[in-house]
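Journal club side-thread
Mid-discussion, someone asked how the predicted structure for our own chain would compare to the paper's figures. Pasting it here so we can look after the session.
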Amino acid sequence: MKKCGFTLIELVILLSIIGIIAATAMVSGSPKGAIRLHAASQKLTQDLRYMQEMAMLEQVRFGISFDTANESYFGYRVTTATKATDPQTQSNLEIDFDSMKEFKEIGISSTNLSGNVIEFDPAGIPYGGNGVALSTQAIVTLTDGTNSKTVRIEAETGKVSIQ
């Protein structure tokens, strides 16, 4: 009499193979755009907080200038002619989403800032590009083409948050 079926070892191997295939499919199908969008909004938030901290530390204005047409921004000290230093790379704080692999397909869709500029004074208070302290919340919107994240800077306090 011949028995049909699988042994326990064969079943364990089969389930392991199915598990590996399922895990691979989940990773390759993950929403990479959403992950990049979140990372880009985190980077922008860190850079805004850094500019605010540097303004308070050095007792001069620091700011960020956004270029929505070229999907980029840069940090500066006192004027836009003097670039701020990126604490991670020790080079100019310039972020160009189009040229950075980790932020591929991320763009700056809009800001509500005067001149697309935000500055922080020595007390950490945020100002628009017109030199006037913010009276309402500043908003910078990033997008991956499908989803968007909003980085908000509170008037008076300069608190930065992501929504």
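Post-session note: The mean pLDDT is 88.
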